[in-house]
Amino acid sequence: MPTDGPGERLLRTGILADMLSRRGHDVLWWTSSFDHFAKHQRHGTDVLQVVEDRYRIHQLHANGYRKNVSLTRLLNHYGLARKFRKHSVLEPRPEIILSSLPTLELCVEATRYGRKRGIPVVLDVRDLWPDIFLELVPRWGRSASRIVLSPLFQAAREACRDATAILGITPEIVAWGLKYAERAPSEWDRDFPLGYSQVPPPEGETEQAAERWRTRGVGAEDFNLCFFGTIGRQFDLETVIDAAWRLKEGDRPFRFVICGSGDKLEFYRKKASGCPNVLFPGWVNRADILALMQMSAAGLAPYRNKPDFLLSLPNKPLEYLSAGLPVVSSLKGTLKRLLEEHHCGMTYGEGDPDSLVATLVFLHDHREASYEMSRNARELFAGRFDAEKVYGELIGHLERIEEASRTPGRSGATVA
């Protein structure tokens, strides 16, 4: 969020809120006081912050959680929804509401609020909640789990059914939302991919970050492979480390720089202990990310092939494309088709270190092919994934939805 301090990189909702306010709209962003990525509380109570004249953020305090898929996260979501229901009635009526899924419970409250007051509510589907919970259960136990989780599935049906429009980051995800809504697509249902903002850090910070990388042993003369993300169950970093062990003996200067924190960080650090070409620098800031990408030959996207990822275009590959990095991915589905169609990356087999080794050796030994992928990556990003372009079109779409449903006496927009 912009209130987290200078240098913080904004994601989809943060970029949208900023662009909406710059276009002259009044924006109220409802969100949690708990930082989902850093796993800490920003504040110990509810806080209403003024970012600019037309832009406010209402942080609602709810319990924290350590794991992204957990009972404590569900409790956090219920707490947010309850507080939104309490505080939203004290604010002026907005012209339109944009609500991200997840948070499922907040989406339900947003659609109830909008339906009661005749306000259009647009769902922006990012992840397939609650379907992802079933993926954690063995196949033989999924029928029983669906019964236990039936309140969540009912909530998803209610939110999708009562939404004015369903947006998603891919056409497949929009179709998922329409399935829950039990209706055919309308002119308002559309996919808008994740966009990545190329706003550079303040002058001099990238150069300072590059020097920090050099002091850690990362040099532009190496064949650097970068990764940024939450180090948890969604990524198959075990295969990456196994490949690093296989490649450490050769004369090719491979270096794996795995950035981020998460509940599996120590597990992977122990697995890579003694492997000289693997570095775990922990959490890194925006300048560190940009500097490392400028020093890298490719970006790693070692996703596990779960249904929600197969239908998605995750944020990390788009970040690599913005820097002109070929994407080395284990993900089939939508991302694999994109990389093949635009020749801007390669896909290896999940859980197959030999496949990853062969992919990386190819990129190292066939530099002209690698450079072509780099050029294609930049071109694809500029045409389809630049944040100003993607979210400018999304805002125009929201304005048209609001105009079609306009009645006198409303002011402003709400995002949740």
Structure, described:
With 416 residues, the chain is of the alpha/beta class. It has 17 helices and 16 strands. Strands 4-5-1-16-6-7-8-9 form an 8-stranded mixed β-sheet, sandwiched between helices. A 6-stranded parallel β-sheet has the order 12-11-10-13-14-15, sandwiched between helices. It has a two-stranded antiparallel ribbon with strand order 2-3. α3 (104-117) packs across α6 and α6 (150-162) crosses α7.
Question: In short, what is this structure?
Answer:
The chain has 416 residues and is of the alpha/beta class. The protein is 45% helix and 17% strand.
Keywords:
416 residues, alpha/beta, Rossmann fold, 2 domains, 6-stranded parallel beta sheet, 17 helices, 45% helix, globular
Percent of residues in beta strands? 15-25%
Distance between the termini: 13 Å
CATH superfamily of the largest domain: Glycogen Phosphorylase B
Task: Please provide the count of β strands.
Answer: 16
Uncertain stretches = none
Radius of gyration equals: 22 Å
What is the name of the CATH class of the largest domain?
Alpha Beta
Q: How is the largest sheet built, in terms of strand order?
A: 4-5-1-16-6-7-8-9
The tally of helices reads 17
| CATH architect. name of the largest domain | 3-Layer(aba) Sandwich
Return the average pLDDT rounded to an integer: 93
Summarize the main sheet: 8 strands, mixed
- Helix-strand makeup class: alpha/beta
Inertia-based shape? globular
Helix content: 40-55%
